[in-house]
Design goal:
Order of helices and strands: HEHEEHEHEHEEHE
Distance between the termini: 43 Å
Shape: globular
CATH superfamily: YbaK/aminoacyl-tRNA synthetase-associated domain
Number of helices: 6
Number of domains: 1
Structural class: alpha/beta
Largest sheet: 8 strands, mixed
CATH architecture: Alpha-Beta Complex
CATH topology: YbaK protein
């Protein structure tokens, strides 16, 4: 296992529970404490799936993206899907029995998940102390042998098994929904 890195961006801002959000180093320590095996890859900062294509070739496993969404009822969702899973937001709202979706703002993302745009990942759920964000995991992604996400910062990627991702969620008291998102594919 590669040694944990030092946080370059130690932000003292607080999130919705009044505490500073967890840092990438704290996340990796949490995974280490759980005995979760991960591969850590450092790379240039990427902010979009398109920008990440250059780094993916060197990292084994399914690469994932994250959609931080809010419906018209003000319910928030973090949808974590394989990059290749196509999603139509109108169909997704029907599949999840939610109101019409819009993307959550950068301020709301920081307030509830403690990350900035470009660094959204399933591990940000550890900052959602109020339980305001529902976590949705792509079934296709969860059937892979290895899945890759940013560890709260977009200049690194960690790869874990889906079982270990679920162990992480269990350790923070979250129960994500695993959903077959193929029904939300565009026509």
């Amino acid at each position: 296992m590669i040694q944990p890195f030092e946080d370059k961006d130690k932000n003292k801002d607080e999130n919705s529970d009044g505490a500073p959000p967890k840092t990438p180093a704290q996340l990796l320590k949490h995974l280490d404490d759980l005995g979760i095996s991960y591969d850590l890859h450092e790379h240039k900062a990427v902010f979009t799936v398109a920008q990440s294509h250059g780094i993916e070739a060197d990292i084994e496993g399914v690469h994932c993206r994250n959609l931080f969404l809010r419906d018209k009822k003000k319910q928030m969702f973090l949808v974590v899907a394989a990059n290749e899973t196509e999603i139509d937001l109108k169909k997704l709202s029907g599949l999840l029995e939610a109101g019409r979706f819009s993307f959550g703002s950068a301020d709301r993302l920081w307030e509830f998940l403690g990350v900035r745009p470009g660094s959204v990942c399933p591990y940000a759920a550890m900052n959602d102390k109020s339980g305001a964000v529902e976590i949705i995991l792509d079934q296709y992604m969860m059937n892979a042998a290895r899945i890759n996400h940013h560890p709260l910062i977009n200049d690194k990627t960690i790869g874990v098994s889906p079982a270990d991702l679920m162990r992480f969620f269990e350790s923070i008291g979250k129960v994500p929904r695993i959903v077959d998102l193929s029904a939300a594919a565009p026509d």
